[in-house]
Amino acid sequence: MDGNGRWAKRRGLPRTMGHRKGVEAVRETVQAAGEAGVRYLTLFAFSSENWNRPEEEITDLMGLLKLFIRRDLAELHKENIRIRVIGGRARLDREILGLLVEAEELTRNNSAMHLVIAFNYGGRDEIVRAAKRLAEAVGRGELSPANVNEHTLSAFLDTAGIPDPDVIIRTSGEQRLSNFLLWQAAYTEFVFVPVLWPDFDKSAFHRALDEYASRERRFGAVPERDVALGS
Ligand code: IPE
Ligand code: MG
């Protein structure tokens, strides 16, 4: 979700107004994804690098997450949506932590769609934390180094049990991964859209899905038809 600041700047508004409008885009996207039959929707809400922003903007983004959970949790639960949070927990304040745990606990048996919130998330940070816990498991003798493979490492990531993303959509015209789901994105399709996040809506979401649907995914193999033709 990128472009909140630019959206506000273009209107001569403070950045915070862009973030506020961005929450509305979140609501619309969650709804659109549910209707489209998406099973897992991950939103990159706050990166481990976003701590470098001015303090008042950080406070504002934290406040918006709290507000979102307080206001929308009941509705998301009613929609049978399961919430999961990925990212480091160490730096988050107690109030945020409490709300995140509450959202995960309340919705843990829901099954319509998984809404994964990446908060204080960074792909490298996630891999480092996983490596640490894996090393601890080895140290305790629960895991042998010979059994460390992609599968066992994956189980230590925040995304354990969540399938790798089929597609990552980035708004605002930036064409970077910016430390999002580094490990999980090995074979993900990337769709970059020029729309600024606060303007992202159902039609922009469907355009991005159409773009994804037009891609041919080979996962390092050759297309079936070429195998059949022997070419
Ligand atoms: C939203 O957009 C990203 C979040 C941290 C939620 P930005 O705040 O990065 O907006 P730009 O890139 O300055 O336009
Ligand atoms: Mg940005």
TrEMBL record:
Mg(2+) binds at D2, E189. GO terms for biological process: polyprenol biosynthetic process. It holds the Pfam family Prenyltransf. Keywords: Magnesium, Metal-binding, Transferase. It comes from the Bacteria. Its cofactor is Mg(2+). The keyword Transmembrane helix does not apply. The active site is at D2, N50. CDD domains: Cis_IPPS (cd00475). It is an enzyme of class 2 (transferase). GO terms for cellular component: cytosol. PANTHER family: DEHYDRODOLICHYL DIPHOSPHATE SYNTHASE 2, DEHYDRODOLICHYL DIPHOSPHATE SYNTHASE FAMILY MEMBER. Homodimer. This is Isoprenyl transferase. The lineage of its organism: Bacteria, Pseudomonadati, Pseudomonadota, Alphaproteobacteria, Hyphomicrobiales.
